[in-house]
Amino acid sequence: MERLLQDLLDACRRLHAGGLLAASDGNLSVRLPNGLIAMTPSGVPKAKVQLADLAHLQLDGTILSGRPSSERAMHLAIYRAVPAAKAIVHAHPPTAIAWSLARPELKELPSDSLPEVILAAGRIPVVPMALPGTEAMGTNLLPFLPGHRLMILARHGGLCWGEHLEEAVGGIERLEQVAEILWKAELLGGAKPLASSELEELRVLRAKLGPKII
């Protein structure tokens, strides 16, 4: 279990170093073998979080130790709704957020021009905005579960859950890379979608690969 907690700290530093988390922004959590949830604390910069800072909660939200993130509602909503979820990362990838600011009408990231996105993540929906720290952060996610693991939280950030921490961290990294590629394509005249037959083939292959973010 200590290895899992150390991996959580390493993930915080990895995302901070990658420019996906600034200061104390965002929150990460893992489901422990004993059924408890370990979560990053409120108000502590992700680059400096220590083992003693981590909070521990029960699935019903009861806080056993520490001061968990005020955005814990969305973590708990996922863990309750999706037994397969073992790790959750909520970060603030800049370009992904920018898409939701500039294009508030978007229901999903327009990634039908990128074959690797379809194969690695499927569709990336935009979850309607919820005020930070409210229960709506959890309830707004429910229509997207368990079918989607990687999402943009409108005007707020990105979120990925996975069957292990590496899947969740990698998903956020992929989200920002895709968002940046699409932004640059817009500057060059706009991304041109794949042919419908190619999209269909890719989606069939994605279904065969399974639901994990790869």
Architecture overview:
The chain has 214 residues and is an alpha+beta fold. It has a single domain, classed as Class II aldolase/adducin N-terminal domain (L-fuculose-1-phosphate Aldolase). 39% of the residues lie in helices and 14% in strands. It has seven helices and eight strands; from the N terminus they run H-E-E-E-E-H-E-H-H-E-H-E-E-H-H. It has an eight-stranded mixed beta sheet with strand order 4-3-2-1-5-8-7-6, sandwiched between helices. A hairpin with a 5-residue loop joins strand 1 and strand 2. The mean pLDDT is 95.
Give me a quick take on this structure.
The chain is α+β, with helices and mostly antiparallel strands and 214 residues long. 39% of the residues lie in helices and 14% in strands.
| CATH architecture descriptor | 3-Layer(aba) Sandwich
β-strand percent reads 5-15%
Helix content: 25-40%
Mean pLDDT: 95
By secondary-structure content and strand pairing, the structural class works out as: alpha+beta
Count the E strands.
8
Key terms:
214 residues; alpha+beta; L-fuculose-1-phosphate Aldolase; 8-stranded mixed sheet
